[in-house]
């Protein structure tokens, strides 16, 4: 039997499934629960154990990890008689890797402490590819001792792992991350349309731009999406819309101006309103194409 902590994983979506599988590959015993039966089958095929409920998943776990879309879902799985806090054992560590509001994380930590459950907020960046390749950036909020306990587990999931401060700090840094990513994708999308309308070889242009100061992880990861117009999610516009709401609200609360971020937040919202919410966030290109009267998105 392994001496590694037993893991309960709640939420096996685009990110959660490959992350849970990476823990299994690293030798962890993972019991999972999610709403989609096919995702439970996938976990079992990878060597994990499918649970019939949240309570069944978390009851014997040393560490409970959650990866769900937003604050309402975190609250739904954490609270109530069938939730994590009522069913996890005293002393368990709850690691929420969802991207939610900082205040939701702070409240969760306080409510969990009353049940004898420790909490880290640990949202990630890197998208589906980063989850599959176990090269995610993990930004963590919570107590140093809990971070130290979780560090080996995080190392099976990501490459850049940093404790950013007390509860909620991971979510604040993730909000800043999503601001930078959205603005970067929008700038890349505008450049793509500009280049194509100018008659430039787009592939060659993106190659040379990627090697200079304009290069970025966003451009490297999304270049093929731009070239092929393949917008199958990775990271859905719907979720980035949620994240832009988090960062604009949080910035307002602390008195930070987001002049460019506010514009991009509106462009993300516009794309979603036009029915593209289920597409990858690189589909911001479609919005620029529409504004330019150009391409498939027009």
From TrEMBL:
Gene Ontology molecular function: 2-hydroxy-3-oxopropionate reductase activity
Is the Metal-binding keyword given for this protein? no
As recorded in UniProt, its EC number(s) are: 1.1.1.60
Q: What general EC class does the enzyme of this chain belong to?
A: oxidoreductase
Q: Is the keyword NAD assigned to this protein?
A: yes
Keywords on record: NAD, Oxidoreductase
Ranges for domain 3-hydroxyisobutyrate dehydrogenase-like NAD-binding come to 168-286
All copies of domain 6-phosphogluconate dehydrogenase NADP-binding, residue ranges: 6-164
Family per similarity comment = Belongs to the HIBADH-related family.
Under PANTHER family, the record lists: 3-HYDROXYISOBUTYRATE DEHYDROGENASE-LIKE 1, MITOCHONDRIAL-RELATED
**Descriptive protein name:** 2-hydroxy-3-oxopropionate reductase
């Amino acid at each position: 039997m392994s001496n590694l902590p037993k893991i309960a994983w709640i939420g096996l979506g685009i990110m959660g499934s490959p992350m849970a599988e990476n823990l299994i590959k690293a030798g962890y015993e993972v019991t999972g629960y999610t709403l989609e039966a096919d995702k439970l089958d996938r976990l079992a095929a990878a060597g994990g154990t499918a649970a019939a409920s949240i309570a069944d998943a978390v009851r014997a776990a040393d560490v409970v990890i959650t990866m769900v879309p937003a604050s309402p879902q975190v609250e739904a799985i954490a609270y109530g008689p069938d939730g994590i806090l009522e069913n996890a054992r005293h002393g368990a560590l709850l690691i929420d890797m969802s991207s939610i509001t900082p205040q939701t994380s702070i409240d969760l930590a306080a409510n969990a402490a009353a049940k004898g459950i420790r909490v880290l907020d640990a949202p990630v960046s890197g998208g589906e590819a980063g989850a599959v390749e176990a090269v995610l950036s993990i930004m963590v909020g919570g107590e140093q001792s809990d971070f130290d306990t979780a560090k080996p587990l995080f190392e099976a999931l990501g490459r850049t792992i940093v404790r950013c401060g007390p509860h909620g700090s991971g979510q604040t840094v993730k909000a800043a991350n999503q601001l930078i990513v959205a603005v970067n994708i929008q700038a890349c999308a505008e450049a793509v349309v500009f280049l194509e309308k100018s008659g430039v070889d787009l592939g060659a242009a993106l190659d040379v731009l990627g090697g200079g100061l304009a290069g970025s992880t966003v451009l490297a990861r999304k270049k093929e999406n731009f070239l092929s117009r393949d917008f199958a999610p990775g990271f859905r516009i719907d979720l980035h819309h949620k994240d832009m709401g988090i960062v604009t609200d949080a910035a307002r609360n602390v008195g930070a101006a987001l002049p460019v971020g506010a514009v991009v937040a509106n462009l993300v919202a516009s794309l979603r309103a036009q029915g593209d919410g289920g597409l990858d966030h690189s589909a911001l290109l479609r919005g620029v194409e529409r504004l330019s009267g150009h391409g498939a998105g027009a």
